[in-house]
Amino acid sequence: MPSSQISALPSARDIDLLHDRINQWYLQHARDLPWRTGANTPWEVMVSEFMLQQTPVKRVLPVWETWLERWPTPADLAAEEPGEAVRAWGRLGYPRRAQRLHAAAVAVLERHGGKVPASYEELLALPGVGSYTAAAISVFAFGRRATVIDTNIRRVHARLISGKALPSKALTAAETRLAEALMPEDLAESNLWNVSVMELGALICTAKSPSCEQCPVFDRCAWVAAGKPEADYQPKGQAWAGTDRQLRGAMLSVLRAASGGVDRTLLTTGGKPDVAYPAELAPAIRALAALNSPSEQIDRCYAGLLADGLAQEKAGLVSL
DNA sequence: GAGCCGTGGTC
DNA sequence: TGACCAAGGCT
C-alpha cells in the first residue's frame, strides 16, 4: 500500500464507538471557553477563529474580550481604520490576520448586510478565511454540517486511524476523505464530533508528549497498537533570530506604540535615529536597535511592511 | 507546494 | 537553552 494511502477505515460499528467515547469525553472534560458558550454571536466566533490561527488559547483570551467590547459587530470594525485593528491586535502575532479580519468585516458589511454568512462557500470567499476557518465558523457558529480539519484533528486521525506519530506536512486528499468518512451522519452529533476531536488533540493527543493514559480511545489507537513509532520526518522548526520576521516584528512594535505616526528614520536607521522621539517609544526603539540588523535587511523589511499595507508613509511620517 | 508571515510559552 | 510548537492562509 502506498504511504499516501490511509490505512483501512474501521467498521461502522467501531466508528460509532469512537464517536461515543470521544464525544462523551468532551462533554466531561472540555475547557470552558468564552467563544463556546452556546450563546455567542457568529461574529464572536469568527473573531476567535482568526485569533486562534497559529496562536495558543491562553494568549487569545484577553485580546478577544477587549476586541469585542470595542467592536461588537462586523460593522463596528469595518468603520475603523485598518491600522487601528493592527494596533488592537497587540502582540498576538501575524498582524496581517488583524488586517484580514478588518477586510473580512468590510466584506461582511458590503456583501452580506453586516451579518456573518453561514455557508462554507460564502465564508471561504472572505479575506483571511481558508478551508479550516470557513468550516469552523459554519459549524461552531451556525451548527452547519461541515468537516473541520485543523492540526489537532489531523494529528488525532494520524494516530488513531493511520498509526502514525504525526500527520503529513501538508493536508492531503486522503486525509480529507478520511475526516469525511469519520463524520457522524447525525447533524448534532457531527457538530459535537468536530469540536470533540479538536479538543482531544489539544488536551490529550498533543504533539510533544501525549497523555495516552487519559485518552478515551487508548485501546483503539492504531499508533499505540503499533508501538508508537517515531515520525517519518523531522519537523523543520522555525528559525527566528536574525530573520525578516523578527525585524518586521520589532518595527511593528514601534509603530503600535506610536499612535500619531513617527519620523520614518526611526525605522529606516534600524532604531538608531538622529532625531528625538517620544519617551514612550523608547523600549520598542531599543529593542529594534538591539537587533543590529544590516541596512539591506532594514530596507527590505521596511519596504515590505509598506507593500503589505501594514505601515503607511506620508511626508516622512510612518504609521500603522 | 514550499516558503513566508509574529510571538511567547514550554521542556 | 534553544528548538519546537500553537484552532492557518496566501503566494
Throw out a few tags for this protein.
53% helix, 320 residues, Endonuclease III, domain 1, mainly alpha, 3 domains, globular, disordered N terminus, single chain, DNA-binding, 3 strands, Endonuclease Iii, domain 2, 16 helices
Overview of this structure, please?
The chain has helices at 12-29, 42-52, 57-70, 74-78, 82-89, 96-112, 120-124, 131-140, 151-160, 173-182, 187-203, 222-225, 244-257, 265-268, 282-290, 295-307, and strands at 262-263, 312-314, 317-319. The chain folds into three domains: 12-31 and 147-225, Orthogonal Bundle (Endonuclease Iii, domain 2), CATH 1.10.1670; 41-140, Hypothetical protein, domain 2 (Endonuclease III, domain 1), CATH 1.10.340; 244-319, no CATH class. Helix 1 crosses helix 11 (187-203). It is mainly α. It binds a DNA duplex (11 and 11 nucleotides) through helix 2, helix 3, helix 6, helix 8 and helix 9.
CATH superfamily of the largest domain: Hypothetical protein, domain 2
CATH fold group of the largest domain: Endonuclease III, domain 1
Q: How many domains?
A: 3
| Rg over CA atoms | 23 Å
> Could you give a short account of the major beta sheet?
3 strands, antiparallel
The low-confidence parts are 1-6
CATH architecture of the largest domain: Orthogonal Bundle
CATH class of the largest domain: Mainly Alpha
Extended strand count: 3
Strand content: under 5%
Give the end-to-end Cα distance, rounded to a whole number of Å. Answer: 53 Å
H/E element sequence = HHHHHHHHHHHHHEHHHEE
Query: Strands of the biggest beta sheet: in what spatial order?
Result: 1-3-2
Organism: Rothia endophytica
Catalytic activity: Hydrolyzes free adenine bases from 7,8-dihydro-8-oxoguanine:adenine mismatched double-stranded DNA, leaving an apurinic site
EC number: 3.2.2.31
Family: Belongs to the Nth/MutY family.
